[in-house]
Amino acid sequence: MSHHGSLRRSTAAGMWAAYSAHTALVTWSLGRQPARLRIPARPAQVAGAAISAAGFGLCIAGMRRFAGVEELTGTRNQALLTAGVYRFSRNPQYLGYLAALAGAGLSRRSGAALLSTAVLAFAYSAWIPVEEQHMSRLYGRDYSDYCRRTRRWWGRRG
User: Fold this and answer.
1) Range of the domain at 43
2) Quick one: average pLDDT of 129-148?
3) Fewest CB atoms within 10 Å of the CB: 79, 90, 113, 114?
């Protein structure tokens, strides 16, 4: 997974390929409507749009903290990010992406899109501990302290 304190390019490429495949699946399910939820359209559209907008905002706020593509993909790390949105979430990009996709699924009343987003959340729950081990090796006590202060998904601790 790591090479000189950074993720291997092959690991990062695999992660991004999986993200792309998932995005394609969600996009397909939003357009095809294989399992439309039986909820009122207008409230679903309004709530879904709000959740999506908040999710995109959170994801972009997390991405903006990085200096470049190599840091964004994890193939190069220079500093532990603990400011801005990272004060409230150790994984704002993942959380934002999930919220954006869930909002889109709700807006289109797509059960398939919501289900695939839940599957992605499960995959993130398996992947994030791998990233956390990497971050712990890379940043040591600073990362441990950060984990004690900031929750994995959202919120500050005492």
Assistant:
1) 2-149
2) 92
3) 79
